[in-house]
Amino acid sequence: MQQPVAGDRSTAVPSQHPLKPSLAADSHCAHRLIEDPEWSLATVPCLTELCLQHIVHNFEKNPILDRLLPEHQRKVLDRLPTGLPLAITANLISDEDYWKRCCTKCWQVCDISNYGGSWKRMFLERHLENILKRFIPNTTDPNQVLELIPLCKDYVWKLEVDQFLPPLEVDQNEERDNLSKSESDMEFSEASLHHYDLRDLVTALPHLEELHLTYGVKDCGMNFEWNLFNFTYQDCCNLAVAVKMCQSLKVFKLTQSKVDDEKTRLLVHNLLDHPCLVQLNLSHNLIGDKGARAIAKLIKHSKLETLDLCNNQIHDLGAQALAQALAESSTLTSLNLRLNCVEDKGGEAIGHALLTNATLKSLHLGSNKLSEPTAALFSQVLAQNTTLTSINFSCNHLGLDGGKQMLEGLAGNKVLTEFDLRMAGVGQETEYLVHQILWANREAARLESLQQSREQ
After folding, report:
1. Which helix (H) or strand (E) holds 280?
2. Which contiguous run of DSSP H or E holds residue 211?
3. C-alpha span between 280 and 206 (Å, rounded)
4. Tens-place pLDDT, residues 368-418
5. What's CA 130's distance to the chain center, in Å?
6. Dihedral sign of CA atoms 400, 401, 405, 406 in order
7. Strand partners, 254
């Protein structure tokens, strides 16, 4: 056998592995799969589903809901976007789940217990409040508010507006140029800073029961100016007319708005003999003795049950006027005069009124510069009055003797369950003994309430 010669390239060395078949030769046996990411084994949607999708996508142009079957309505409502115009949804959609989605989309904190358990009421009330908070006189179109009235009037029971914006400074400068040189800057300021007039809105809300207002600007930061917090006399006139015409109003709060005696008298004049008003809050204002006398007249000519005048400028004369009204009142159950300056003359007058008053349950006289004479009189009140359940004398100067006199009067009292004597200088021993008596009264009240519930 001939051996291959080294270096001879004419003879090929046989391969140790069989040759693989050519890919091109066997291409007819290969399976080529072209993947479609949108392809699915799911069946084509039924015609009903396609129709519902069309209704949802075109709801703003053609809102169809009432003509659908209940199960189809549910599907449409679950898919509707929350940004649809209120002109379409307000009168058409009553489903609470839809309005819940609208609320949670707009606000992180949503407590419907403050809105009668209704998500729709919450959304419409808060939406209207936000419009009012951002309204700029002479700039914002008033129709933004007026157009909402027919949409939300049946669902607005309470309005809480803690900000009213004044006109823009540009408008103020233009108005200043139009004023005669003889007019003072004060006249300009008063004439140019009027806020949104609530008359048209409030009188068009038939169910409005609560109105909480603060005339000022929130979060103004470095743009702070005192005129941003100016509740003008014209503002007061407009508001007074509005609350007078709102016959369903039960709660009226106007706080932190620089309400002085003149404005208080104007408001009271329009609230006299109001058929429904039971709660009035004018705290954190500038009300003095003249304003207090006007409010005393309101107590006599209204159905007021709760009155809050905290942090004003009421002295002994104003307190005496309130005390006289309190002696004659048959409806007032709560009076808050904290952070005023009624002193002992005012405190004693209130004490004398409580010797005959049989309706007041809560009294707050904290931080009023009261001392031992007031404590001595209230010792009699505690011994005779059978209606008061809560009294606050904190941050006064009653002294040790005043505390002892209070304790003597409280010894036979079985109805008082809250009695705040902190920072009143009555001594720790008196505070401890008072606490023991109050604890016994609260326990007795609890057992009595439990017994009554069992009998029912």
Report:
1. strand 279-281
2. strand 210-213
3. 20
4. 999 999 999 999 999 999 999 999 999 999 999 999 999 999 999 999 999
5. 12
6. negative
7. 213
